Amino acid sequence: MEGDTTNEHINIGNQHASLMSMPYKKTKPTVFQNTIRLSTCSQLRSDILISLNRGRMELRDFRTELGVSSTTAIHALRELEKGNLVFQDEDRNYALTKIGEVIALKLADFIDAIEVVKTHEDFWLTHDLSGIPHSLLEKIGWLKDSALLEDTAIDIFKVHKNFVNLLEDAKKIRGISSIFVPDYPLLFEKLILKKKADVELVVTEEVLNKMLEMANQKMLKDAIEDENFKLKLYTVKEGINAAFTVTDYFLSFGMFHVGGTYDYNRDIISYDKKAIEWGMELFKFYLKQAEQVYL
To answer: Where's the Methanogenesis regulatory protein FilR1 middle domain (predicted)?
Structure first.
């Protein structure tokens, strides 16, 4: 039996080698490729799918919204109908099929992602993305309504000052950091004790030690233990390749350069609900890896 098994392995190996040596043959376009072509290779068809993703439309709506003639719109709509992405109801309104709904959603997400990375192309090309988990890179389009804030030659603390000003109005603060800024311990002391902000921070052990050196340790201990205050500290053992703060009304997102140094001069800022939701998901990702600190 053992001999038969060996021969079988040899035969399978030979078959595999034979398959690998076969020349590659280009296959005919499949239904999948046709659907990709329908939805992405025409600006008009893509725009129609995105527009219908917001609801049913009459033919005249396409003329108004997309700025095309009825003849042009009808031609594109018929192609989408043939691909089972669009249909016309009994009232002669156009709508997405169930398949069309799925494709339109993914298409919209894809377009949003392109908008994010191309609007601030240099920022995304020159920074380390390893601090963002794959699941949230897939949702990078949620940051489309954001702005890139940069220091200038005459205002070298522009990013820092803007962050501090925004933070002072926040009621709920969630932060992640592997960098230490000397001003922050006193700032957070003020936010917690005077403004009763709800604060949770995840930092590296090195940053925590620096915080304890600079801050009033009794204040920190009281703030953690006293029910009248809302402060929770967490640490992670491994480095974090990002530094960001998400609050009840804004997201401030900073990153490390590809070379490994933190970029203090540029920050992604957004007040959009989807961006804030993205930031909260990123915070929860790191929170799962962290241990709570008790002083």
So the answer is: 156-288
pLDDT tens per residue across span 137-164:
999 999 999 999 999 999 999 999 999 9
Q: Which CATH number fits domain 131-292: 3.40.50.720, 3.10.20.280, 3.30.870.10, 3.90.1150.10?
A: 3.30.870.10
Domain layout of the chain by residue ranges:
31-111, 131-292
DSSP string, the chain: -HHHHHHHHHHHHHHHHHHHHSPP-PPPPPHHHHHHHHHHS-HHHHHHHHHHTT--B-HHHHHHHH---HHHHHHHHHHHHHTTSEEE-TTS-EEE-HHHHHHHHHHHHHHHHHHHHHHTHHHHHSB--TTS-HHHHTTGGGGSS-EEEE--SS-TTHHHHHHHHHHTT-SEEEEEESS--TTHHHHHHHHHHTS--EEEEEEEHHHHHHHHHHS-HHHHHHHHH-TTSEEEEEEESS--SEEEEEESS-EEEEEBBTTS-B-TTEEEEE--HHHHHHHHHHHHHHHTT-EE---
Asked whether this chain's domains 31-111 and 131-292 adopt the same fold, the reply is no
CATH class of the domain defined by 31-111: mainly alpha
Q: What percent of the chain has pLDDT over 90?
A: 67
